[in-house]
Amino acid sequence: MFSGSFTALITPFKNGAVDEQSYQDLVQAQIDAGTHGLVPCGTTGESPTLSHEEHMRVTELCLEVNAGKLKIIAGTGSNATEEAIMLQRHARDAGADAGLVVTPYYNKPTQAGLIAHYRAIADSVDLPIIIYNIPARSVVDMTVETMATLAKHSNVVGVKDATADLVRPLATRLACGPDFCQLSGEDATAVPFLSQGGHGCISVTSNIAPKLCADLHNAWNEGDRVKVQEINDLLLPLHDAMFCESSPGPVKYAAQLMGMASAELRLPLVEISDASKKKVEAALKGAGLLG
Fold first, then answer.
1. Does 160 participate in catalysis according to the annotation?
2. Domains and CATH numbers, the chain
3. Is the pLDDT of residue 59 over 90?
4. Which of 30, 114, 140, 186 has most Cβ atoms within 10 angstroms of its Cβ?
5. CA separation (Å) from 83 to 97, 170, 213, 234, 251?
6. pLDDT of 192 higher than 90
């Protein structure tokens, strides 16, 4: 079971190239802060603008520093099934614990197409799959019924649910069973998601607040609801700020303010606005992360 706070890692760039040293420093800082798991090459890692070679290298850099300490769910999805199989196979060979496979974007497959896509990957590569359901970005929404069908495959073990539908985790648990891993893909809904049967969160905010995010899940597991509420209240302004523009623009700017990495993005993403910068800075100060 994958549970707790998983960080959807940013991919730092320097003069257009992957900044390998900053990336590995970020991974080590996450481990030191008590994060429960790491997700390289997801949406926050700007995977759509990484070449195949960069994508695989970033996954390898993460695994190298991690050295088996935390669970690693590597981003391996694509709107081309054969490409997803290739990335899933690489993640397996590199030593990842699972692949995060996004629902195919732009192609707009039917539910039957989604079943065929995921079954092809699951049949081709013996590595657990976490389905990444994010209709706001990929247009298609995998239904609970489709997910239950796919959950029957031994390699399909869970979902990153970025629908922000808080009925969904309960319906999914009833349809897929309590052992089907459910990770929220929306930072601000992490606590209610847990209360409806979820197991954790793949977080953007934990790039810059890894200890707070991990502490929230630790408190939940310990039954300390007062502490959960305190941390959740503290984190909400950060969550809001991290999504004031398209991610990962705001979180990369936050990382730069904190001296962690450059805010550099790849086109078509561009530097966030001055108004957004002020919001990010205020949120960091409010959470005690910036002097």
1. yes
2. 4-222 (3.20.20.70)
3. yes
4. 30
5. 19, 32, 33, 40, 28
6. yes
Catalytic residue among 132, 252, 253, 277: 132
**pLDDT value for 1:** 81
- Of 28, 87, 93, 89, nearest in space to 62 by CA: 28
Tell me the CA distances in angstroms from 182 to 59, 153, 195, one per residue in order: 22, 16, 12
Alpha-carbon distance 80 to 100, whole Å? 15
15 C-beta neighbours (distance < 10 Å), count: 7
The predicted model gives 269-273 an average pLDDT of 98
pLDDT of residue 291 exceeding 90: no
Reply yes or no on whether 277 is catalytic: no
Give SS3 for 14: strand
Provide the whole-model pTM. 0.97
Alpha helix (H) residue ranges in the chain: 20-33, 52-66, 81-94, 111-124, 135-138, 144-150, 168-176, 190-195, 210-221, 225-242, 249-257, 274-286
Catalytic residue among 71, 160, 277, 279: 160
Question: For residues 144 and 151, what is the distance between their CA atoms, to the nearest angstrom?
Answer: 10
- Both structure tokens of 90: 């690489």
Are 147 and 175 in contact by the 8 Å Cβ rule? The answer is yes
Q: Tell me whether the omega of the peptide bond preceding residue 250 falls within 30 degrees of 0, making it cis.
A: no
